[in-house]
Each structure stands twice: as C-alpha cells, then as structure tokens.
Amino acid sequence: MQVTELAADGLKRQFKIVIPAHDLSSKVDERVAEMAKTASMPGFRPGKVPAGLLRKQYGQALLGEALEQAVNQGTAKAIDDRGLKPALQPRVELKSEFAEGKDVEFEVALEVLPEIGQLDFSGIELERLKAAVPDKSVDEALERIAKGNREQKPVDPPRPAQKGDAIKLDFVGSVDGVEFPGGKAEDYVLELGSGSFIPGFEDQLVGAEVGKPVEVKVTFPADYGNTELAGKDAVFKCTVKEIREFVDQPIDDALAKKNNFENLEAMKKAVSDRIGQEYTQISRGMIKRELLDKLADTYKFPVPEGLVEGEFNAIWQRVEEGKKNGETIEDEDKARKEYREIAERRVRLGLLLADVGRSNNIDVTPEELNQAIVREAMRYPGQERQVLEFYGKNEQLKQQMRAPIFEEKTVDFILELARVTEKSVTPEELIEAARKADSEEDEEEEKPAEQTPSAN
C-alpha cells in the first residue's frame, strides 16, 4: 500500500492511496480459504467445495469486500501515521477502474481539528451578580401558597355572586341563534375575576343569583383560536346553580403540614431556597454568556469548514421553518452572512470547550447522566418509565443529554481559573440586567439562545 500526501492547506488534508492488485487478490484468497472450511454446494460435502469454484461464484463480491476493507485500512493508516484528528468523516473518491488484477487508486480528503495550544484563563475578568432573597419575596410566595390552599364554602346567607366567588353553572353559547361546538357545559366551576373566559363574560355574571337565568353577550377576539368564531358576537344562556366563597387559609404550621413540611419555618426556608436558586440560575446564565463572549473574542483559531457548514445548515433550517410561519427576512444574503458568522463562533467555542475538557480530564459520570435522564423523564408525568426505557435503548439521545452536562462542567472549570468578582444587587436589578442582556443579544444576532456544539 502506497500513501502519498497531495495537499496540506490549513486544516485540509488530501492523500492518494494505491492498493496493489496482489494485496486485494491475497485478501480474496484468505476469504475463500475461510469459506472453504464450511461451505457446501450441490454435489460436495460441507468443507469439500474446491476453492476455485468458490472463487468463481463469489469472487466479485469478495473483491468488493476486500476493497472496502483496504480503503478503510489505508485511510486509517494515512491518518494514524501522521497523528491527525479528523473533524469529520473523511471523503473517499475512487480514481481508477475497479477490476480484478488491477491496482486500485483512491483519494482521501479530510479536515482535521485545529491545534488550540496552551490556554490561560487567569486574565479573564468577569462579574457575577448576586442577589439576596428579600423577606418580602418569601412572604409573597407564602401568600400564593395560602391562596392555592383556600377552601370553598357555600355562601350563607344566600346572596348574588361577587367577584372572587367560585360559581357552578350551566351555559349554552350560540352565534346568530345557532349553537356552536364547544360552547356548552354543565356544572362548570368558574372563579369570577380569574380571566379564564372571553373578556366580558365573567363581569356579566357578577350579581347573578342561583336559579335565575342570565344572558351573557360577548364578542370573540379577532385573534381567537377558532377562526370560525373569531370576531363574532355570541350569546351565552347561563344558569348559576351554586355560589361558593373562598375561605382564606392562615399562614401557619397547619398550612406547612398540608404542603408536606414539618412546620412553617421549614416551609419558609424551602421557599427562600427555591427563590435563591432561581436568582442563582439567572446569575449563572449571565456570567456564562459573558464568559463565552470573552472566550470568542480572545481565542481566534481556524475552524473546520465542514463543521461550520453543518452548524450553519442547522441554523438556517430553523430560519426556513420561521419563513413558513410568516416570518420575513429583508436581506437574505446579509442574513446568511451573519448566521454563518454565528455558526463559526459556535463551532470555535465548542472546539475550545472540548479541548479544555479533554486536557483537564473533565468527564460526565454515569451517575450525572442518569440523574439528567431521570429529570427529563419527570417532565412527563405518567410516562416516566417509557421515557427511561427510550433513553436506555438510544445511545445517540444519551450523548445529546451528555453534551450540555459536559459543557456546564467545563464552564465551571474555567470560571474557577478566571478572575471573578461578585457584585451585590437587588433582585429587581438582577432581573433587569438579565432582561437587558437578552434584549441586546436578540438585537445583535436575532438568533436562538447560545449553545455551543459539543466536539468532545
């Protein structure tokens, strides 16, 4: 086997590989000898078929098999001998006629991963916003819990319905005197003032009395989901069957125990911790974005065009889907250029993070991966087992789940090396800073949220 390097331009490599005819013939002979040990044909006992007869019948297929094996071995040899790290599957092109007794010549073209070199993150300066959880936020959350645990009781003595009451009613809706599908219900429970019905519907039931019919006249919004009803006037004939009022639930140990906490203090702590985690996630997202921006600005190295093209195609596919849903692009050429730059940035960041992870033995443990899969399964109540089985049988999906975990661990590693200062802010300031950062990113790039492709 003869390997000749034809080109080495940046990250691109091209080789010519020649496989002598006798090498292919030898591989065919080896396979025929193996087959002869067990092969059977009419007129011959198993293992007694002449090699020449087997070669005549299966020779062409075995020659193709030998060629495929030789191409794979030759490509691997060209790559391994030079210590190359392919970014994508090499492209192989046959350059000579494929026939028994003739040498085979083919060319291999590939792109390799760049050499990123030694990285020093100690000079990267970042600011982490930190917000404490105010007592007011905890109190408001407890009030929402108490509201969600309110009990209902029939109004006594009887009175007309008031805003905030829960009423049980029957209703039949019609447009131009004709009932429409989905406009009828019995024993429907509606909280007046909840805004869950068409605008104006609930307001007209304030003052209604049990057993007395009420006609509610409304106009369906122009953007109503059912296009046959959008913008049309409707009349609902309603009969209130029961009026119930809510009884406030005091915020005390009984409320805490009702929500599976030992006492009120334990519930307060859990609420405070949950709010604190939300603040931490917001802050984490901001400092990660700032870190990725600085990494992208600091480290410039060539990236494989094939990876960029793949990432660009994935982005542009979402753009095309948006166009089908009515979104417009004023200057498509300009948009393509901007999205290609975004794709290149993502690929570069992915390669950089992957290199940092490999160089520092950062890996995703089976326990971390399993925990992530369990969290994903819990998003589908009642179907957890099916989701777990689905992931268990699909290695590609497990790798997709692994990628963001690897990225987060690598980002944490870099943050430990960077110069990070903390700044105390109010929750309002934290949320406003995050909103402003999101707005600026949308204006500059008009793209989905940052997520670097995994190249590890």
CATH superfamily of the largest domain: Trigger factor, C-terminal domain
Q: What's the domain count?
A: 3
Shape, per Cα inertia axes: elongated
CATH class of the largest domain: Mainly Alpha
Reading the helices and strands in chain order gives EEHHEEEHEEEEEHHHHHHHEH
SS strand fraction: 15-25%
Roughly how much helix do the residues carry, as a percent range?
40-55%
Poorly predicted sequence stretches spanning 5 or more consecutive residues: 446-456
Give me the Rg, rounded: 34 Å
Which structural category fits the helices and strands?
A: alpha+beta
Quick check: average pLDDT? 90
- CATH-defined architecture of the largest domain: Orthogonal Bundle
Distance between the termini: 32 Å
Total beta strand runs:
11
- CATH topology grouping of the largest domain: Trigger factor, domain 2
Number of helical regions: 11
Biggest sheet descriptor: 5 strands, antiparallel
Give a summary of the structure in a few sentences.
With 456 residues, the protein is an alpha+beta fold. It contains eleven helices and eleven strands. The strands form three sheets. Strands 6, 7, 8, 9 and 10 form a five-stranded antiparallel β-sheet that branches. Strands 1-2-4-3 form a four-stranded antiparallel β-sheet.
Features:
single chain; 456 residues; alpha+beta; Chitinase A, domain 3; Trigger factor, domain 2; 4-stranded antiparallel sheet; disordered C terminus
